[in-house]
């Protein structure tokens, strides 16, 4: 996983709330068995509409998605994160994220920065008035800068540290393998096994 | 120290706790299927890692499988299923493949084998893993990276969830079911209302539910945004589990029950939030929009977006009505459907099929309506056939299928065509969920069956001219 400190890229104002993962990537794209190449499925249904924001050439190369509240609800599919990242997004800004999506994002290196809805509205207006403008997301200072707007965002300390260091989860856990083995020795005997019966 | 049920199960599984870091939580059971696992196994292979506990891991094929006899014809679906088979073989994971007597939807298979037990931590790369919380387990959906993490370490680093009590008191009227409880809860707290929480369903109405009905309630917790749903185990739970092949046997059983009896929230436990719902006044619930929170009692009409909260909410509701092809003010009962789907991990268990069969018995599915009945597992199918339910459905003109996720999601041949409308016992009415352009109304098995007979969204109480529905009068 690549370390993330600061990122500057074109901001894409997505004025929709409750964007569920079926909209981010429809189920039909879930049949693949690879980890890459999901960019064609990103917002697949909406991209057929020529007025959709990513079909506007000014925003097409966007890497900072500025979304409405409750982004990433619904199915736990991690493909939603892959689709966003394969397309080129490194950051999603929203006033509220669905838990599973947010967890998945942190593990893949996609920053989900939680801002006040008022700040989201300001950034939307700015990006709509000046299409193709850049947004800078600084994970060190936890701030988003868009034109004159400087807004703080929330991300939990642990995820932030992991992103800053570019650390992958499994290696971190394996540093405590001894604890896992000790825990296993204390598990009750009545716990089920999938390999019997 | 007093605590909630969720906190007790959590605390009993902490492998390691350190200031400023998530807890490292041990996972008792890891269920996998063909959709969210290939990239996880790929990750293991790339890093040269193995599956730490194949004996705590179980795989089934469900999302992609066709529910008509014969092999998978869709090449991409076949690739996923073949990949799962190869991965299970290579990493020593037990698999129930298509055609196996134990195959079925992952959330039906675990409980029916007695694998899902009180006090366990259960995960699966599927958000409806919350189903298993019906047993008093802490069960939640995870992403593919987490699947890889659990395969490699049998643990997950997690921050504690908040807890919310959902108190459902009173007695359900005839014709009102667990599905109506859960749709009413979601309509009340919204699709984001449960965000960050484990919901614990409590109260007399919950205690009175069967295990299968409890699974329906917990299954849909995710649709309120919650990580998990739980119900404290009781005699109903123990009776369901006793004798199942993966339940404890002999002295182990006694030891387990003794431990399980302590699994409840203490009287003085404090929840981070509480919500109350009156079961007695509940009536059959249906959704009108494109998220599970957009639901209303069947007796009402399609709502007017103009009467809703802020501009975003108005716009979202209008967008939903446009997609659904509905006009504000239309009585929900007048909405005509093309398809009725009974099945899924929400309502694909034997009790659900029995309930639907009771309604359609001796009648015909309305002209122009296609009714699909899809058992949640091969075992449910077999049991239904032993009880003659298959004949009831086929005599009524419904299709009786093989086990799988089927029309719950557009990943297998069972789909809605663009513009088609369904009454569906599944869990999600998102745009395109049941097929591109398809329109979904979420309903209970009883409403699904009544709708199949009348052709418009209906409850059993509406069938008074068709059947002796006196028993369902209260649900009108």
Automatic annotation (TrEMBL), chain A:
Q: Matching CDD domains, A to Z?
A: IPMI_Swivel
Question: How is this protein named in the record?
Answer: 3-isopropylmalate dehydratase small subunit
- What function is annotated for this protein? Catalyzes the isomerization between 2-isopropylmalate and 3-isopropylmalate, via the formation of 2-isopropylmaleate.
Gene Ontology molecular function: any one: 3-isopropylmalate dehydratase activity
Domain Aconitase A/isopropylmalate dehydratase small subunit swivel spans what residues?
1-117
Q: Which InterPro entries match?
A: 3-IsopropMal_deHydase_ssu, Aconitase/3IPM_dehydase_swvl, AconitaseA/IPMdHydase_ssu_swvl, IPMI_Swivel, LeuD
Species annotation: Pedococcus bigeumensis
Sorted alphabetically, the Gene Ontology BP terms of this entry are:
L-leucine biosynthetic process
- For this UniProt record, give its keywords in alphabetical order, as a comma-separated list: Amino-acid biosynthesis, Branched-chain amino acid biosynthesis, Leucine biosynthesis, Lyase
Subunit-structure text: Heterodimer of LeuC and LeuD.
Give the EC number(s) under which this enzyme is classified.
Answer: 4.2.1.33
Q: Does the keyword Lyase apply?
A: yes
Mark the transmembrane ranges. none
Q: What is the residue range of the signal peptide feature?
A: none
- The reply on keyword Ligase is no
Reaction(s) catalysed by this chain, per the record, are: (2R,3S)-3-isopropylmalate = (2S)-2-isopropylmalate
Return the GO cellular component terms, semicolon-separated: 3-isopropylmalate dehydratase complex
Q: Which family does it belong to?
A: Belongs to the LeuD family. LeuD type 1 subfamily.
Q: In which pathway does it act?
A: Amino-acid biosynthesis; L-leucine biosynthesis; L-leucine from 3-methyl-2-oxobutanoate: step 2/4
- What enzyme class is recorded for this protein? lyase
From TrEMBL, chain B:
Q: Name one GO molecular function term.
A: 3-isopropylmalate dehydratase activity
**Keyword annotations of the record:** 4Fe-4S, Amino-acid biosynthesis, Branched-chain amino acid biosynthesis, Iron, Iron-sulfur, Leucine biosynthesis, Lyase, Metal-binding
Annotated NCBIfam families? leuC, PRK05478.1, PRK12466.1
What is this protein's record name? 3-isopropylmalate dehydratase large subunit
> Where does the secretion signal sit in this chain?
none
Per the UniProt entry, the Enzyme Commission number(s) are: 4.2.1.33
Q: Which reaction does it catalyse?
A: (2R,3S)-3-isopropylmalate = (2S)-2-isopropylmalate
GO biological process terms, semicolon-separated: L-leucine biosynthetic process
Residues annotated as domain Aconitase/3-isopropylmalate dehydratase large subunit alpha/beta/alpha: 7-455
Which pathway does it serve?
Amino-acid biosynthesis; L-leucine biosynthesis; L-leucine from 3-methyl-2-oxobutanoate: step 2/4
Cofactor binding, note field: Binds 1 [4Fe-4S] cluster per subunit.
Q: InterPro entries, per this entry? A: 3-IsopropMal_deHydase_lsu, Acnase/IPM_dHydase_lsu_aba_1/3, Acoase/IPM_deHydtase_lsu_aba, Aconitase_4Fe-4S_BS, Aconitase_4Fe-4S_dom, IPM_dehydratase_rel_enz, IPMI_cat
* Cofactor or coenzyme needed: [4Fe-4S] cluster
Show the CDD domains listed in the entry. IPMI
Q: Which residues bind [4Fe-4S] cluster?
A: 345, 405, 408
Q: Which Gene3D superfamilies match?
A: Aconitase, domain 3
HAMAP family on file: LeuC_type1
Organism the protein comes from: Pedococcus bigeumensis
Q: To which protein family does this belong?
A: Belongs to the aconitase/IPM isomerase family. LeuC type 1 subfamily.
């Amino acid at each position: 996983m690549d370390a993330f400190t600061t990122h500057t890229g074109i901001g894409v104002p997505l004025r929709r709330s409750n964007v569920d993962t079926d909209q981010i990537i429809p189920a039909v794209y879930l049949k693949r068995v690879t980890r890459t190449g999901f960019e064609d499925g990103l917002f697949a249904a909406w991209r057929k509409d020529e007025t959709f924001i990513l079909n506007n050439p000014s925003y097409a190369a966007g890497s900072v998605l500025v979304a409405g509240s409750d982004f990433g609800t619904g199915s736990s599919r991690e493909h939603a994160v892959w689709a966003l990242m394969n397309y080129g997004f490194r950051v999603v800004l929203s006033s509220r994220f669905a838990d599973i999506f947010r967890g998945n994002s942190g593990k893949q290196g996609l920053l989900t920065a939680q801002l006040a809805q008022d700040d989201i509205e300001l950034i939307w207006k700015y990006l709509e008035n000046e299409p193709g403008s850049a947004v800078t997301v600084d994970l060190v200072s936890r701030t988003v800068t868009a034109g004159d707007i400087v807004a703080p965002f929330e991300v939990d300390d642990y995820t932030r540290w992991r992103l800053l260091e570019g650390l992958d989860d499994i290696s971190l856990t394996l540093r405590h393998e001894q604890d896992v083995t000790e825990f296993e020795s204390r598990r009750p005997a009545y716990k089920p096994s999938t390999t019997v019966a | 120290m007093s605590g909630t049920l969720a906190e007790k199960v959590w605390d009993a599984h902490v492998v390691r706790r350190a200031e400023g870091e998530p807890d490292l939580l041990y996972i008792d059971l890891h269920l996998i299927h063909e959709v969210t696992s290939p990239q996880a196994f790929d990750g293991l292979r790339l890093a040269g890692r193995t599956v730490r506990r194949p004996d705590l891991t179980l795989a089934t094929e469900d999302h992609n499988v066709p529910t008509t006899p014969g092999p998978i014809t869709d090449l991409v679906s076949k690739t996923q299923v073949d990949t799962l088979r190869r991965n299970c073989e290579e990493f020593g994971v037990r698999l129930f493949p298509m055609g196996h007597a134990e195959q079925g939807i992952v959330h039906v298979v675990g409980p029916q084998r007695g694998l899902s037990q009180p006090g366990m931590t259960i995960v699966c790369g599927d958000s409806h893993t919350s189903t298993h919380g019906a047993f008093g387990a802490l069960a939640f959906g995870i992403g593919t990276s987490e699947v890889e993490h659990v395969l490699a370490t049998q643990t997950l680093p997690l921050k504690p969830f908040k807890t919310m009590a959902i108190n459902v008191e009173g007695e359900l009227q005839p014709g009102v079911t667990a599905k109506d409880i859960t749709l009413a809860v979601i309509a009340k707290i919204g699709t984001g209302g449960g965000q960050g929480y484990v919901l614990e369903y409590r109260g007399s109405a919950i205690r009175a539910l069967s295990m299968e009905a409890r699974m329906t309630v917990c299954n849909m917790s995710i649709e309120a945004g919650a990580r998990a749903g739980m119900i404290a185990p009781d005699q109903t739970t123990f009776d369901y589990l006793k004798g199942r092949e993966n339940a404890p046997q002999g002295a182990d059983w006694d030891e387990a029950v003794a431990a399980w009896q302590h699994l409840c929230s203490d009287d003085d436990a404090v929840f981070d939030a509480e919500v109350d719902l009156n079961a007695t006044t509940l009536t059959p619930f249906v959704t009108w929009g494109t998220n599970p929170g957009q639901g209303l009692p069947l007796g009402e009409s399609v709502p007017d977006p103009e009467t809703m909260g802020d501009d975003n909410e108005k716009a979202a509701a209008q967008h939903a009505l446009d997609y659904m092809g509905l006009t504000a003010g239309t009585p929900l009962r007048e909405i005509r459907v093309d398809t009725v789907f009974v099945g899924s991990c929400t309502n694909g268990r034997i009790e659900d099929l029995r309930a639907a069969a009771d309604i359609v018995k001796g009648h015909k599915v309305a002209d122009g309506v296609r009714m699909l009945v899809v058992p949640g597992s091969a075992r449910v199918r077999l049991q239904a056939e032993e009880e003659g339910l298959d004949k009831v459905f086929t005599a009524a003109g419904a299709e009786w299928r093989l086990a799988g996720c089927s029309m719950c999601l557009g990943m297998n041949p069972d789909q809605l065509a663009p513009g088609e409308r369904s009454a569906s016992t599944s869990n999600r009415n998102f745009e395109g969920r049941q097929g591109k352009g398809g329109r979904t109304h979420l309903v209970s098995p009883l409403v699904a069956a009544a709708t199949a007979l009348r052709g418009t969204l209906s409850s059993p109480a509406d069938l008074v001219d068709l059947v002796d529905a006196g028993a369902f009068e209260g649900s009108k």
